[in-house]
Amino acid sequence: MARPMVHAQGVRKHFGRLDVLKGIDLTVERGQVCCLLGPSGSGKSTFLRCINHLERVDGGLLAVDGDLVGYRRSGDRLHELRESEVAERRREIGMVFQRFNLFPHLTALQNVTEAPVRVAGVNRADARREALRLLDRVGLADRADHYPAQLSGGQQQRVAIARALAMKPKLMLFDEPTSALDPELVGDVLDVMRDLAADGMTMVVVTHEIGFAREVGDTAVFMDEGVVVEAGDPRRVLGDPEQERTKAFLSKVL
Amino acid sequence: MAASLHPAAQVRRADAGDHPGQLRAVPVRHWGRWAAAVLAALALAGLLGSLAKNQNLHWDVVGHYLVAGLIFDGLVTTLWLTVAAMAVGLALGTLVAVMRLSANPVLAALSSLFVWAFRGTPLLVQIIFWAYAAALYKHVMIGIPFTTVTFVRFDTNSLLTPSIAALLALGLNEAAYASEIVRAGIQSVDPGQQEAAHSLGMKPALTMRRIVLPQAMKVIIPPMGNETINMLKTTAYVSVIAAHDLMSNIQDVYAQNYQVIPMLVVAALWYLALTTLLSGPQAWLERRYGRGTARAAQVPPLRRLFTGVAGRLTTERKG
Fold first, then answer.
1. Confidence tier at B290 by pLDDT (50, 70, 90)
2. What is the model's pTM?
3. Interface predicted TM-score (ipTM)
4. Does residue B106 sit in helix, strand or coil?
5. Which long-range contacts (CB under 8 A, 24 or more apart) does A75-84 make?
6. Which domain of life is it from (chain A) (predicted)?
7. A228 CB contacts (<8 Å, ≥6 apart)?
8. Could you list the residue range(s) of the whole structural domain that residue B292 is in?
9. Do residues B134 and B240 both lie within one domain?
């Protein structure tokens, strides 16, 4: 059996004296969509940010495609990697943020070509062609020369997805991608994500969209207070949860 | 149909009978504005008239020295001193700002110390200090500290000419101020921008150069424009160490011909001309780094003044 895309074993993280992650075990297989759900403060966004080392893991093992993220192992010690070494590994992990974080001084097209040209060394013409293809894929080919401030939230988020895809990642992380959007714009973004999942992209999605998790997710993981409360088939976890905490949460959001 | 009308319009409608189309809106007439404008213009005309008639101003002297060779030499020195001091200030200031923001506590403390010292003492003191630094160290040596190994050795007096002393004083002082401006610019950029860049595999230096600094420029340029204009005028201080800038040469002339006021008018006219010229590049830079924001299409301030005055007076008349 192929090695999993994401493998977490006892991942711990604390901010000062606050334990945010208290030993997370989680496996995401290749081509799967894993949805992380839970109340705010449950640690799901922190865990997602640990996957590409935007947050440093304090304990436990966290590997992407067999490689430790942000560390090199020698014996029973983990040595943190330099920023430039971490950057190498992050190239293969795309991330989409709640607040889009598009580069406001660059057009939509330049946002998408920046990393391929500057980081991957793709020549400008090829990067441009690929960027236009990706913008077309997210339905924004006609907005290529617009600056982020001239785009709606939903359009910005779709450009952000195209920007992440431009680095040809093997894993995509989504941190509440629709939480900052007006309700009528959520659908377009979810459509793009659904399309990506159908194409076989491995995805870890922190979301409050129960419908999306049930329909697109291969696994649903319910987290609370820094631990995984229950995980499994989304229809079971979200339709007929075993744990009281899951039931209580679902009764509030549904 | 009546229900869709604004309540105020309904009241008016009653006055105007059944012909709302005949209603005419009359804006408020600002008689006070007109009176104030006329009074201010008269006062200015009076002042200019009295200046033009004043024999003590010696316009012939002003005219003669405005284009004199000695004054041009001073202008050239003032200009290169301004440009060089700002270049030193910006380069060193950016370095100090990055040190201040670094995770290394020693570097951060050193940068604070630098700003504290150079911002906390009068520029005049610093200028004279550099001019007389030879009294502190007769020689400047580059070597390995606490050993006798020396690579180069200079005589301080021949190294620190008045021009170099002036440049050092102005540049180091500017660096202290510039570093705070650059720091504010860098800190004004949303941390999410760095996270997004890092998540794409961009390394810290590339992120700083391509993502953070271009956005920080929007915040950095207006105060740096201020600093440049300030620097142009501040170079006049170096006349105390006879650095042959515009002000030094002006003083040399009036020390001989006693035409103090006309010579100061010459200086003022040249400083005004240069600072006016400097505002152009600033507006251009602001538009360039304002890309992607609604303000990018801003009208230059002078044009706004003229269209504003013309527009306001004509609309008043029409109203």
1. confident
2. 0.78
3. 0.94
4. helix
5. A80/A56, A83/B203, A83/B204, A84/B203, A84/B204
6. Bacteria
7. A24, A25, A26, A221, A222
8. 58-310
9. yes
